[in-house]
Write a structure and sequence with these properties.
With about 70 residues, the chain is of the alpha+beta class. The chain has two domains: about 10-35; about 40-73, no CATH class. About 45% of the residues lie in helices and about 15% in strands. The chain has two helices and two strands, in the order αβαβ. Strand 1, helix 2 (about 50-55) and strand 2 (about 65-70) form a beta-alpha-beta unit. The longest helix is centred in the first third of the chain and has 23 residues, at about 10-30.
Length: about 70
């Protein structure tokens, strides 16, 4: 190999990033079409952010916790 043509350690990373981008695009297409939707564990009022974050930290949730300004405690 001549000088300056050594494989970059970022080549593999670049291909992984491309794969992630392609997966994200495919999942976004499925979500946009309504074939899949995110799993929501709970919807909380904005005033309950601290309690929701604590439940996330404690591993007590499955899926996403959504904080909604339209939900009142």
């Amino acid at each position: 190999m001549s000088r300056g043509t050594a494989p970059s350690p970022y080549c593999a990373l670049g291909s992984k990033l491309l794969a992630v981008r392609e997966c994200h695009r495919a999942l976004s297409d499925l979500a946009d079409s309504g074939l899949i939707s995110p799993l929501l564990s709970e919807r909380l009022a904005l005033a309950d952010v601290a309690a929701g974050v604590q439940r996330l930290a404690d591993g007590e949730t499955v899926g996403r916790v959504v904080y909604d300004t339209a939900v009142y405690a």
